[in-house]
């Protein structure tokens, strides 16, 4: 019983290795695949990888890409984004 309590307390105090490295959200736009969801992962400090999937008003829209900050560590940091995907609507 004591071992189980110690294990539970130890895991509660351990820091999550993905804290501040994975972002998830709902939204609208090309980077969300239309009306959909997007996930961002920061595998290293100054590189972000993202993917989105959603409904593009007539079918499935999706994309994937990466973004790199130009001036990291400043108050305002512009970034460059490269993205590939499919968000076409035929009427």
Essential attributes:
5 strands, 1 helix
Short recap of the structure:
The chain is mainly beta and 91 residues long.
Give a structural overview.
By secondary structure, this protein is mainly beta. 13% of the residues lie in helices and 51% in strands. The protein has one helix at residues 2-13, and strands at residues 22-29, 34-44, 47-55, 60-69, 79-86. It has a 5-stranded antiparallel β-sheet with strand order 1-2-3-4-5, with no helix packed on it. The termini are far apart. The model is unreliable at 1-9 (pLDDT under 50).
Give the SSE map.
Blueprint: H1 2-13, E1 22-29, E2 34-44, E3 47-55, E4 60-69, E5 79-86
Antiparallel strand pairs: 1-2, 2-3, 3-4, 4-5
How many β-strand runs?
Answer: 5
How much of the sequence lies in strands comes to: over 45%
Output the number of helix runs: 1
Q: From the alpha-carbon coordinates, what is the Rg to the nearest angstrom?
A: 19 Å
Return the average pLDDT rounded to an integer. Answer: 79
Which series of helices and strands comes N to C? HEEEEE
Shape: elongated
